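Translate sequence into structure tokens.
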Amino acid sequence: MTYCVGMRLNSGLIFMSDTRTNAGVDNVSKFRKLFTWSVPGERVITIMTAGNLATTQAVINLLEERSKIPDERRPTFLEAPTMFQVATIVGDTLKECVRHQAGEGPVSESPFSATLIVGGQIKGMEPRLFLVYPEGNFIEAGEETPFFQSGETKYGRPILVRAFDPAMSMEAAVKLLYVSFDSTLKANLSVGLPLDMHVYTADTLEPGIQRRIEPDDDYFNQISSGWSDALKVAFDALPDFKF
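Result follows.
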């Protein structure tokens, strides 16, 4: 399992994912699930992957390969004129990989399925964020749905729903993501450190802060312990039930 979150803020985009993959409690590994490409001054694209590892690796490898050796599939995702077309290319590549892995079985019921979060900006346009489904179709983040989650979403979602604001600062949004991931890590062993993060500031058209958050990360541990203490204080402050 995994947990990925992509946020669309007024000031840019933030992406965060864990790195744990598992095929049972005795077979746990770490793999990168957050990937960023850039054409300096022209575009920045980030993709996060959740689902079958063989499928997601095939998607990333195909996108990479086709961008370096363009053929009849042009434009590649690094040449497409809009982020909508980037999401379309990524969706088509995912659908192709799912069908190849699953053979002739129903695509939507395949154990080889995966979900991707795709975001970025192309020069002259606004930053955009998409959630791509195994069937290749996708939806776009908007005012009413300004962030996307994939993987093990239920434990970290209440934090985001209550506190997220598109107008919040990048610093506050990163703090919110840390809390959301900390809640998920404590509730589900299939999601684990280290975490990968990319903070993209709108209109810079170059990768922003990219960081790997290890188990000994001081800020993450400060947020984790501080959030636990704050919850206890808030709980104690609530009125007791009266019999």
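Note: The first strand starts at residue 3 and ends at 9.
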